[in-house]
Specification:
Layout lengths: L1 E2 L1 E4 L15 H14 L3 E3 L7 H10 L8 E7 L11 H8 L4 E7 L2 H8 L3 H17 L3 E7 L1 H7 L1 H14 L3 E6 L6 H14 L5 E5 L6 H10 L4 E4 L13 H11 L2 E2 L9 H11 L17 E2 L2 H9 L17 E2 L7 H11 L8 H15 L8 H12 L7 E13 L2 E12 L2 E9 L2 H14 L9 E9 L9 E8 L4 E8 L2 H37 L1
Parallel strand pairs: 1-10, 2-3, 2-9, 3-4, 4-5, 5-6, 6-7, 7-8, 8-9, 11-12
Antiparallel strand pairs: 13-14, 14-15, 16-17, 17-18
Length: 537
């Protein structure tokens, strides 16, 4: 198998994305996650750009990385300065990383109009900077910035820039589609030409997502002879983002026979993607290829039937290959066979034609007609089934609640909630203040319940979505979908009402009760296994 080196720039290019801010500890976590996955190169920032990156590189010196080679990022020397007197190069080398990335201009327009220097001086800047870093025993990756635009405008000069880096001793020359506007077929053709001109050079590719084809362009560059692919792990970055390395790794390794990460690490791809999204404070897109929750989800009855007979009928790989899992979604289209399989997990005695199966199917279809949606709220589905099967135990009832939302002064708001619950005849009343009415209600409800069920204190909402279901303006039916986590597991519940607070409360109650039910069953199973073990003795 041929190798393609993966070069991750999440901590530098990714940090330039709108809405992304990494703390120093976040950057350490991302670096360690990429190292565990087996990513060969991790570019972690510019040590001369800000105090945070300076602190990071200092802390990183004490890390024992097993797979990843840490890379510091910087530019060619400034025109008018020697390499020895350029303070930015001093900071770059001072980071102490085994490898450095040097970016330099390869588009004549950028040299004359942006850098405002001569074409010859730019060539000298590239060659001298690379040679200076090599002199200090660094592996050097040269990023030929704007290479594809530069090649199309002036191919002779763009190739001269590449040659200058190679003469300086660059270990890799990376062709950058910095503006993200080059088509994939152009990427392949131009990469092939560079390989013809410099047959012994190690060539890389760096693509942006401005035309929605960064992954495709990266793949085409590999087809054209590139042996290094740069990008960010989840594709976020400047403007529309960078090439998504998570997708690229899977495509190259599973579809094209290349080695990108150790084979045994492929099954860690999904958990790494979700972890990286959490660190970046992002929601991983559900339709993210390979690693998203919907990547191997099936809703249509014919699709579900086909997958149950043979998964390859509607799946291009086995989900376990990348650490993901198959989901058969409950909906009005799913059919009785899927419903039965889900029901038998709770009631193994049920059969396809039993009255209970028919009753639950009609109940679910009725609720979906009323606005419920269960493919994204499996826990509410489970609660409904348990109630229909008589397996539901009410842990608490809400006797009364009140929510007050007020404007304290112009532009400032405050919300309060009062909740009165009953647990086995014992009443608890709690009040809480929140960022808004739902947040206040959530806090008050949890605070009241935690008196009786301490486990409630370990869970919190990780996502909250509202969708208007009809066009009756302010009297519209709304659907509230919430995601809850206890730090280990995540589960989704849904509520529907014309009152957004009531819909939210319905979803909140389901999320809390399903946690209590599962905890109770876990304890029972633990006692059962213990008794079975004692009986065997």
């Amino acid at each position: 198998m041929k190798q393609v080196l993966i070069y991750d720039s999440t901590l530098r290019d990714g940090a330039q994305a709108e809405g992304i801010t990494f703390s120093v500890q976040d950057k350490i976590k991302v670096l360690q996650a990429l190292d565990r996955l087996g990513v060969p190169y991790v570019e972690a920032g510019n040590p001369s750009s800000n105090p945070k990156d300076i602190e990071f590189f200092e802390l990183a010196k004490s890390l024992e990385l097993k797979q990843a080679k840490l890379v510091a990022f910087g530019s060619t020397r400034h025109h008018g300065k020697t390499v020895e007197e350029d303070p930015y190069l001093a900071s770059l080398l001072g980071a102490g990383t085994p490898a450095v990335a040097i970016f330099g201009k390869s588009w004549d327009f950028h040299v004359t109009d942006i850098l405002q220097t001569t074409l010859g001086e730019n060539i000298n800047m590239i060659k001298e900077t690379v040679a200076y870093c090599k002199k200090h025993d660094r592996e050097v990756v040269f990023d030929a910035e704007h290479f594809f635009d530069g090649f199309k405008a002036n191919p002779v000069y763009a190739l001269e820039c590449v040659n200058a880096a190679l003469e300086g001793g660059a270990d890799f020359v990376v062709l950058c589609d910095t503006n993200g506007g080059t088509m994939p077929f152009e990427i392949q053709t131009i990469t092939e030409e560079v390989r013809r001109q410099f047959p012994t050079a190690k060539v890389g590719i760096h693509c942006h997502e401005d035309t929605g084809m960064a992954v495709a362009s990266s793949i085409m560059a590999v087809q054209g002879g590139a042996s290094m692919v740069q990008g960010t792990f989840l594709g976020f970055g400047e403007r529309c983002g960078n090439a998504n390395l998570c997708t690229i790794i899977a495509n190259l390794q599973l579809k094209m026979g290349y080695t990108c990460i150790p084979e045994e690490k492929m099954e860690d791809l999904t958990v790494t993607a979700r972890y990286m999204a959490d660190v970046a404070n992002l929601s991983l897109p559900e339709k993210e290829p390979y690693v998203g929750r919907s990547s191997f989800s099936h809703k249509g009855g014919m699709h579900i039937d086909g997958v149950n007979k043979n998964p390859k009928s509607f799946e291009h790989i086995q989900p376990e290959t990348v650490g993901n899992s198959r989901r058969l979604l409950m909906s009005e289209m799913a059919g009785r066979s899927l419903l039965l399989r889900k029901l038998q997990k709770l009631a193994p005695e049920l059969r396809k034609e039993s009255a209970g199966t028919k009753r639950i199917l009609e109940k679910l279809k009725s609720l979906e007609h009323a606005g419920y949606q269960f493919e994204g709220a499996e826990s509410t589905y489970e609660m409904i089934v348990r109630k229909e099967l008589g397996q539901y135990q009410s842990f608490f009832t809400i006797e009364d609640f009140k929510v007050i939302d007020e404007q304290v002064k112009e532009g400032e708001f405050s919300a309060y909630a009062l909740v009165k619950i009953n647990v086995g005849g014992k009443v608890q009343t709690t009040a809480a203040e929140g960022e808004g009415p739902i947040n206040a209600l959530d806090k008050a409800l949890r605070s009241a319940l935690e008196v009786f069920f301490p486990a409630i204190g370990k869970i919190h909402l990780s996502d909250y979505k509202v969708r208007v279901l009809d066009s009756e303006a302010t009297a519209s039916l709304v659907r509230v979908l919430i995601e809850t986590t206890d730090g280990v597991q995540k589960w989704n519940t849904v509520g529907v009402s014309q009152n957004i607070i009531q819909a939210s409360l319905n979803a909140l109650v389901d999320s809390l009760e399903i946690k209590l039910i599962h905890d109770q069953e876990e304890v029972r199973n633990g006692f059962r296994k213990l008794n079975e073990k004692n009986e065997k003795r």
